[in-house]
Amino acid sequence: MNRTFLMLIFIVGLMGSGMAAIADEDPEEEEKNWTYTGFFSQQLNQVAFSNWAAGGENSFSSTSIANLGADYAKNLISWENKLELAYGVVKTDDISWRKNQDRIDLLSKLGRNISPQLGLSALGNFKSQFGNGYHYPNDSVAVSRFMAPAYLITALGLDYKPWEFFSIFFSPATGKFTFVRDQTLSDQGAYGVEPGETMRTEFGAMLRLAFEKEVVENVRLASTLELFNNLTDQNKSNRKNTDVDWQTNLHMKVNPYITATFMLHMIYDHDIPIPLYETIGDELIQVGTGPRLQLQQMLGVGLSYTF
User: Predicted confidence band at 276 (pLDDT cuts at 50, 70, 90)?
Assistant: First the structure.
């Protein structure tokens, strides 16, 4: 744990030095070296029935998405910053409002080139959510909250970028921090923390593949695959397990103000216990917990703004 915190301090110091160097630039010169991007989307979906012989259920859903970027590049220094936010709710005749999308994802990567395609980089990545999550139909017991869980990854490594739209980041020195800042969930040992603890610390190696490109006209694909292996797990048999976090976003532009969005997010973490259910009689009964592939998918059309 000590070396992980030392690495975190080093990365914060390195990023602070980079920020200080940028701050010393002439304001006009600094502005030329920054590139800003943004994507905002508000998606609304409604289904309504009246005297419909085939049957059906009225429903309404709303999803808000914001993707912001600020990238700096000058000489041998590059600094990439991305913030992804999403929140969505759904309602039908028989149920009240329920959350169906909730994400906070902040990434910062500071690098120094040692060749045109290869650089040394320090990476920091924070992930969490805005509100409470439930295993519906039980909406009285929260299974997740803001900062429960939350994940912080800090890494030092090599960043290889053979093309402008594709990068490979490998870090043999990666710290992964899992936070569960809710006492009830902490006492349950949720999300891999020890019962009663609010943080789990892991140290190992990470491989991150990132692709973002307009694959055809008005269709932009962004996909990020992260693989992490905990090399210091006290249970040595767990060291062979690899955490997988793979997220893909596809934005299809219909016109300047309407965009169709498809999102697929897959997570596998051997340390996160997932409830396992069986149908016994007519009831769905939890029979235990175990590691499972977590899958989330979203498809929607809505108003958008891009810069």
Answer: confident
